[in-house]
Every structure is written in structure tokens, then in C-alpha cells.
Specification:
The chain has about 280 residues and is an alpha/beta fold. It contains ten helices and eight strands. It has one domain: Alpha-Beta Barrel (TIM Barrel). It binds flavin-adenine dinucleotide.
Length: about 280
Amino acid sequence: MAAHPAQFSFELFPPRTPEGVAKLPGIAAALAALKPKYFSVTYGAGGSDQDGTYDTVVKVVESTGIEAAPHLTCVGSSRARIAALLDRYKAAGVKRIVALRGDLPATAIGTGAPGDFHYASELLSFIRQTHGDSFQLEVAAYPEMHPQARSPEADFEAFRRKVDAGADAAITQYFYVADAYFDFLERCAKAHITIPVIAGIMPITNHAQLTRFSAACGADIPRWVRLRLEQLQDDKAALQDFGLDVVSRLCETVLKGGAPGIHFYTLNQVEPTLRLWKQLGLPA
Ligand code: FAD
């Protein structure tokens, strides 16, 4: 079957247990069979360190032959450490980086990140100054506004700063309201921002986890979805079937509405992404 015109990528996190490490090659192989454009590997979330991200990137590339992009954050890092890490990634053949501020410790909320770089735009400028166009740079975008932003306008201005600092593409925070994504695309068009804004999609598999994540990152779960998830929370199979319906319709809507691609937040699980893939009739 011909390749789909949109691009697809899969996000993984560095495993934190020996069982997780042992399972990773199987997870990466199963997802690699779907021929994503690239994998990305988070940093920092849940306490992972840069070695964990680096090792995972290297292992995924070795075991699948598919490009892997490390996430790099400002939080808790100095200019010298970022410079050393960029050199290490370059030497390992990395061509793409997801450049972020990172999540702040509770004490620092309301300010920029502690350290040499306060915002993702500063990290981007540094990477461009020191490495030119050696890396394709992806940044985060927030159709429903970043939870710590002063206003939607200020947040969009912050996004524009990242584009001006050299972002090649953006990946959105996950959302379940397609209109928020389309509104963001319209705001980009009005502002003459032309980089691809890839839709970040989180499969729905677990009520408690989704509620917790969404409260932290500001993703709106529509009332009717929330109520159904509450009702189904003790019936895992039914909840996952319902989640599959909701999220596959969302994917269809954004792809039909012009999304240049989808980035799946896999949480190192194969099955939810695989089921979505099949439901969407994507080429396997
Ligand atoms: P920024 O773009 O720097 O924005 C952060 C906040 O500061 C926003 O409220 C913005 O409006 C504001 N702001 C920006 N510039 C300025 C300025 N000059 N003056 C005043 N305010 C400003 N987190 C991790 O820890 N590890 C990961 O691996 C990770 N991966 C992610 C992947 C994706 C695709 C996404 C969408 C998010 C990811 N995150 C990750 C979460 C991310 O780090 C948080 O959402 C973080 O709080 C913001 O990061 P950012 O890069 O969007 O920050």
C-alpha cells in the first residue's frame, strides 16, 4: 500500500526498571514495523536522566534502523552541559532534537527555568548558534494554551519566538478538542508561521492516569468523554474500546482537516497505538 501523505512519529520514554529495559527492543520493533518517520525519546519526565535518554536513542536506532530524536530541556542544565550533550548527540549521528523548557519544580513555577536557559526559545538560539543547521529542531505547541502562560496571546508570542529562533516543526501538547488544534493552525496562518504543526495524540487507556496528566498539562477532556471514562473505569476492555473510538475519530478529523502528521504519545505501550493504526486504516 502507498505511504500515507501525513508523517507519523512515536514518542517513547527511557525505561526505568530492568523489566522496562528488557521490553524496549520488542516495543520499538513492533512500532518500527509501522514505518514511522522517527521515534522521539523523552527526558526528565518521571526522573529519567540524560544518560537514560541517550542510551535509549542509541538502542532504538541500532535495533530498528529508524531515526530517533532525543528531547532536550533547559531545566536543571547549564550551557556547558547542553554543549557537551549536543556534541555527544552529533557524534552519535543524531539529526533531530525536540527542544523544550521542561517541567519546572513547583518552587519555580511563575518564573523561567532555573539554569542558564529560561525558555525553550533560548535553548533553540543556542543550538542554532553553536550547531547551525546540523539538527532538525522540533518544539512544543499548545493549542489549549500552556498552563503557566499569562494569556493565550502571550503564549502564542512565546511560540512565535521559538519559530523565530529556528524551530523547523512543532508537536502539539495532546488535546481531545479538534477545534482547538484547528484554531491554532489558523492563528499560525494569520501570523505567517508556516512550519508544520504536528498533532500530538494521546491514546486513552486509563482513566486515573489521563485525569492526572490532563490536570497537569491543561488538556481539556470534554465533559461527555470524562463522564463515560468515569463510568467505565472499572471495565478496562470497555474503557479502551471507548477510548479507541474517541481518539480514532479525533485522528481522522485532524488528518482530514489538514494536519501534516501525528505524533503518538505511546507511553511505551504498543497495543493502543497499534489498534489506532488499524482503526485508521493506515498502511502497515
Ligand atoms: P516554553 O516554550 O519555554 O514555554 C514555557 C512557558 O513560558 C509558557 O507558558 C510560555 O508561554 C512562557 N514563555 C515562553 N517564553 C517566554 C518569555 N520569553 N517570557 C515570558 N514567558 C515566556 N517535558 C519534559 O520535562 N521532558 C520531555 O521530554 C518533554 N517532552 C515534551 C514533548 C512535547 C511534544 C510536549 C508538547 C511537551 C513535552 N514536555 C516535556 C513538557 C514541556 O517541557 C512542558 O510543557 C514545559 O512546561 C514547557 O516547555 P516548552 O518547551 O513548551 O516551554
